[in-house]
Amino acid sequence: MKLFLKDKKELFEDVISFSFNPENKISWIPGQFLQYYLEIDNPDDRGSDRFFTIASAPEEETILLTTRFFQRGSKFKEELRNLNIGDSITAEGPWGNFVLNSGNIYENIFFIAGGIGITPFRSIIKSLELNNKNLPITLLYSNKNGEVVYKDYFDSNKDINIIYNTGILDENVIKSNIDGVNVSNSIFYISGPEPFVKNIKSILLDAFNIDNQLIKIDYFPGYDMD
Ligand SMILES: Cc1cc2nc3c(=O)[nH]c(=O)nc-3n(C[C@H](O)[C@H](O)[C@H](O)COP(=O)(O)OP(=O)(O)OC[C@H]3O[C@@H](n4cnc5c(N)ncnc54)[C@H](O)[C@@H]3O)c2cc1C
């Protein structure tokens, strides 16, 4: 399918949100992702396609892609950054099962995001808001540099409990936020760079004895720790 660039917003110097109009209406479940393809002359060894989570809710109808750029980044990102309004990009999908279970049975739902790993949570939370559904969600959003992507949106959402953390999200920070919570009746969703996700998952398993079945993860390869 083809997507046409509708808008490009610099959220921070190195973080850009792209919104696309799909050629034909697409349905997706909040938390899912697309695979994007660009025509690149002499692509680098990382190739011409990438996966990005759809950060928008299906009810918004546009496809929101938010990503971080690096000084010596990939050719793919360079081409993506240079897209002009009206340009098209090819995408396939949606795919992925990092989505909310239908019919919540948990007392608490914890979303734990590292940096740009916030994208699936933005989609899920926005969709719940647009459907007037209120679930017992706590978003623990960690950033190493204080660049909190979508902060204005999350601050305006009064339905969820949000905790921002700057710096390393360690056992003590997690403990201070889940103390007193019935963890056996809670579910944990973790999204972010691969090392972040692995680290938080092992803290939940080892330090808090949380059942593996109650932890859902979404890896973003290609980034260092966030
Ligand atoms: C299911 C899924 C969903 C995802 N969703 C998102 C999302 O919503 N937003 C998002 O930003 N990412 C997302 N990702 C990750 C995304 O697909 C890319 O892997 C990530 O953005 C890194 O992009 P890049 O490889 O173009 O490298 P860059 O972002 O350009 O660079 C990342 C790091 O790699 C280094 N680097 C760059 N090029 C090379 C090279 N050729 N060789 C060695 N090192 C290099 C850079 O210096 C930097 O440290 C998702 C991944 C998956 C699997």
Q: Low-confidence stretches at least 5 residues in length (pLDDT < 50)?
A: none
Strand order of the largest sheet: 4-3-6-1-2-5
Overall mean pLDDT: 94
Terminal-residue CA separation = 32 Å
| Discrete helix count | 5
Give the beta-strand count: 11
Strand-residue proportion? 25-35%
How many domains make up the coordinates? 2
Class by SSE composition: alpha/beta
Give a list of the ligands.
flavin-adenine dinucleotide
The main sheet comes to:
6 strands, antiparallel
Indicate the CATH class of the largest domain.
Alpha Beta
Structural description of this entry:
The strands form two sheets. The protein has a six-stranded antiparallel β-sheet with strand order 4-3-6-1-2-5, with no helix packed on it. A five-stranded parallel β-sheet has the order 9-8-7-10-11, covered by helices on one side. The model has no long low-confidence stretch (mean pLDDT 94). Helices cover 20% and strands 34% of the residues. A hairpin with a 2-residue loop joins strand 1 (2-12) and strand 2 (15-22). It is α/β, with parallel strands linked by helices and 226 residues long. The protein has two domains: 2-95, Elongation Factor Tu (Ef-tu), domain 3 (Beta Barrel), CATH 2.40.30.10; 108-220, 3-Layer(aba) Sandwich (Rossmann fold). The protein is built from five helices and eleven strands, in the order E-E-E-E-E-H-E-E-H-E-H-E-H-E-H-E. The longest helix has 13 residues, at 194-206. The structure holds flavin-adenine dinucleotide.
